[in-house]
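#struct-help
A.M.: can someone run this one for me? Single chain, 223 residues.
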Amino acid sequence: MPDAVVLLSGGLDSYTAAAIARAEGYRLFALTFRYGQRHAQELSAARAVAAALGVERHLEFDVDLSVFGGSSLTADQPVPKDRVLDAGGIPSTYVPARNTVFLSLALAWAESLGVHDIFIGVNALDYSGYPDCRPEFIAAFEHLASLATADGVAGAQVRVHAPLQHLSKADIIEQGCAFGLDYGLTHSCYDPTRDGRPCGRCDSCVLRAAGFARNGLSDPLLS
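D.P.: on it. Structure tokens below:
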């Protein structure tokens, strides 16, 4: 059975991407980041998701991106809500270089494990506005991995899998439901209430709710 490092945030997308990796026969090594995010409920969600997936090992890593600021997810500034999504704009919830940092650390762990496959749950079809979710970025990082690692220099191919990249949120949820995933374990809200409930109004909540609705379902976190 081949091994893969999977980036596991505790959100709906990363859960589905990891389930796809498992369905493809990979043994999972899950990596979750505590990066100073205001939606820290996703950390406990990641633990629940990792347990549900039966991962081989779940590593939680501290890399505090809040020291740089530059994002409403890591600084004391309002999270946008009730807005019209604009695919041409980059929202304040973008965390500078986050996926570059996360993939670099996933690559380091993969190299130490002798693993050549990394899974990430980025999505570019539905609105995100994040430059580090684009196919061009994933392809560029995969090329970088072949240049920056001992295995890559020796001729091994390091593969960065983004199986959700060209799926809509509705498609992602449909596939996860086909796997029998319990999305009630996940957390996606950028600005949850004090008791951890999703706000229902941020970009992430709006996209998630629309994805469930297109499948004739209700979000289990809101029902």
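A.M.: thanks! Residues 98-113 form the longest helix (16 residues).
D.P.: also worth noting: The mean pLDDT is 94.
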